[in-house]
Amino acid sequence: MGRADHLIISSDQAQPFNYAVGLHGSKFFQELKENRRIVGIKCPKCGKVYVPPRKVCGGCFCENTEFVEVGPQGTIGTYTIVRYAFIDPETGKQKPVPYGYGFIRFDGADTLFQHFVELSDARPIRIGARVAPVFAEEMKGTIRDILYFRVID
Ligand SMILES: [Zn+2]
User: Fold this and answer.
1) Per residue in 41-88, pLDDT tens?
2) Which of 10, 47, 141, 153 is most buried per CB count within 10 Å?
3) The sheet that has 49-50: what strands, in order across it?
4) HSE (CB half, 13 Å, CA atoms) of 89?
């Protein structure tokens, strides 16, 4: 059996696309953009608060209808530090490493919300660390309106 040649194909194409974020996603991103507020939704039966909001409670299977403000501060439930360089699908360029990636429980929420966490020698990332979002100057109604979370304790 002969050795296969490895083919490398390069291209540079923009592939813009849009998708609907739904009623609950719309509420989340509108509140974020217009008021810099983090919104979750509360289950009417068990009281669990989901962030981002979702239509149905995973535990009770009942419809969530009550939007509630949470945070904006929260606590790191778990995290990782990414050290492996890769091509960022958002930019098409190599993502600078290392960077922190946290699972954050906003104050008043029961679920973990994933986002970037700033790495700082003075305030190291850790489970239980208190964090606050750092917002973009120009809010566009996307998840990138939160640039990253900063450890504050
Ligand atoms: Zn429930």
Assistant:
1) 999 999 999 999 999 999 999 999 999 999 999 999 999 999 998 888
2) 141
3) 49-50, 38-42, 66-70
4) 2
Query: Distance between CA 137 and CA 114 in Å, rounded?
Result: 21
User: Cis before residue 52, ω within 30 degrees of 0?
Assistant: yes
Cα of 127 vs centre of ligand 1, distance in Å, is: 26
Question: What tens digit of pLDDT does each residue of 11-28 get?
Answer: 877 778 888 999 999 999
| Range 122-145 average pLDDT | 95
Distance 48 CA to ligand 1 centre (A): 6
Residues 6 or more apart whose CB falls under 8 angstroms from that of 151 comprise: 76, 117, 118, 120, 123, 124, 125, 126, 129, 130, 131
Distance CA 145, CA 151 (A): 18
The structure's pTM equals 0.85
CA 50 to ligand 1 center in whole angstroms: 10
Distance 42 CA to ligand 1 centre (A): 8
Check: CB of residue 146 under 8 Å from CB of residue 117.
no
